[in-house]
Here is the input.
Amino acid sequence: MTDLSFRALFLGAYLLLISACTDSSPVFHETERPLRLSDWQLFSVDVSELAPSESSVVFRPNNPLFTDYAHKLRTLWIPQGLQADIIDSEISYPVGTVISKTFYYPRASGTALLKIADSGLQKINLDENQLLETRLLVRKSDGWDAFPYVWNDEQSEAFLRVAGASKPISLSGQDSAEPSNFTYFVPNENQCAGCHTTVHPDGDMHPLGAILSQLNVAVSESELSNSSPLEQMVARGWISDVEDFPRSESWQDPSASLEDRALAYLNMQCGHCHNPQGAADTSGLILDSSQTLAINRGVCKPPVAAGGGAGDLRYAIVPGHPEESILLYRMRSDKPDEMMPELGRSLIHDEGIDLISRWIEEMPGSC
Amino acid sequence: MKFSTLRTFSIAGAALLLASCGNEEPTMPELSFEEALQEQLIQAKAGDVITIPAGVHEITRSLSLNVSGVTIAGAGIDESILSFKNQVQGAEGLLVSANDFVIRDLAIEDTIGDAIKINESSNVQVLRVRTEWTGGPLSTNGAYGIYPVQSNNVLIDEAVAIGASDAGIYVGQSSQIIVRNSRAEYNVAGIEIENSTFADVHDNVTTNNTGGILVFDLPNLPVQGGRNTRVYDNQIFDNNTANFAPEGNIVAGVPAGTGLMIMANDNIEVFGNNFIDNNSANVLIVSYLINELPITDPNYDPFPEAIYIHNNQYTGGGETPDSEPLGLLQAATGQPIPDIVWDGMLSPGKTAADALCFSESAETSFVSLDASNGFAQPSFDAAAHDCALPRLSAISMSLSSQ
Here is the structure.
């Protein structure tokens, strides 16, 4: 090899590296398990901003999961030239697809963080926000794989933490109440699969947010842009335009009935395990809206293996009596052996409790 | 340019370029014992043996294993201890969903919820494993010690389970089960086989539990129709610990002082056991109706049938029954509660002999409680149950030795 060709090679490598520092396309890793998030090139990170690659679509699902009031920046990327198919009314992503979810909190003064509504930022200002973790779901040739990356204190890099991580958080509301001090948990890879494998144990992991009904956001409600994530995907040629996409109900939709909102909430927060084939079917409590028999949905259903999680109560749901309902007791608990969901939160979700409480309050019947 | 020089230059260049991204090279965090163990469990391959060294290892988050063909091996039931005393996350100590799983020679202590939960797994061996809540029997203890559920081919051998607020060894919604040579103490239920089929429970010691051994079938579960369980050659004595289960749980209804309790199961053979001083009743056979809970499951049969009890030994027991109907019975007769107690509730069209047969020594006492009629006319006449049933087959399973 001549000096000249070496120089050309080096120049190429130089340009490649330079481009990694500015906007560039994400990179798919089929076999490697990069220890650094930056190896995926999903974001440009400088001292003041985390910005998704322009090759990605930023999205927010219709019916998001509660995670300790953390804000979430979600991206979806399909390698250039590839397309997703619609199979059985669901998106089948091509190998190479990378979905990311970055969890962060707005900063208050000092080390305290702020509990305020997620405004759906497209980029994260690092002076005003504290990054916690970025979770990836990557479509490999043998299925989806999950990667939890945890940001360092300098917010300069996130490292793969196969076994998860934990971080003490002090979260202040806008009122002058005392901040909530809690431990924020980054899931380990098995825990990722715990939610993303909805058919247990032989099913495969799959996305929960980047699915057709979740991405089909009504444009007027979209906080991100003038087009829904699904429309952006069509515009990029990632999926072909299909009429009548399904749309999932949102627990936050003020125009939906109380019942629909409650069921949407339970479906999203609980249905990934509490479905007829899920890990929690052992309990006989099915919360994914598939059941017609009231007892299977928890109405007047005695606990099976709840232990202390039953809170000395007799039934999962007692119509008209949220205070006697185990379901609500477990939502209100922040003890690891009692609370539901078992994973994904350390705080209780006041708005969800309020919704389910009103739903049970208005439910007719008795046990 | 020579190759070596060039390489040096390239590395220097790359370092420079990385620096030009605006950051110094960030450093990887170090892993704790717990994180390293969990990482091993995640990255394990079939055939791996993950060793837990002797010593007390503090674990704060649930451990989990999803990889089939893995063995977790400690240095001994009292040597390798995973202590969850300061657990802050997870509803169990170890959660397993993996076939061909072996866990042996270690202890799991003081988990905040269940100690070892094994969900939807086949070919499971729990050998010389201790699960214990070290503060004694408290309602704040986790529900289950060793807890395989919806699993097949489960062998629990030489295990020790202490202090569970539900069941020490609990096998639920499973099939092909052997629980043997194990010891269960100070749990609400020592050993419980629930909504399961084809189980052998033998050569165990259950003592100081609320109930020694339970064989239950419950409604509204994806797997039900519990049947074909043999309970034999067990030592079942002094299971008189006050019931400390949280209310609402089905075992909260188990009277303190229960030796063996069979609820709504069919085809159960009980023989060669030694029942001593279980102070509500040495053997209690009931229908699910005794709980006075509504049954909305059309596929559920609440009545026990084809229960065959023979060649057991009974010493003492029934002295201080922890149950209103049993208490009234004792008050009425001035005698201890008989060795074998049946609630007397029958499925329509069935006879007493369809429910329960026994061949015991002449001095073995019996009562049918007449529960369907508000316990109005208990009967001590065992003649209707003087019958024999075909012996059940032994469970055989071929599991790889680890």
About this structure: Chain B touches chain A through 69 residues (CB under 8 Å). Chain B has four helices and 30 strands. The longest strand of chain B covers residues 122-132.
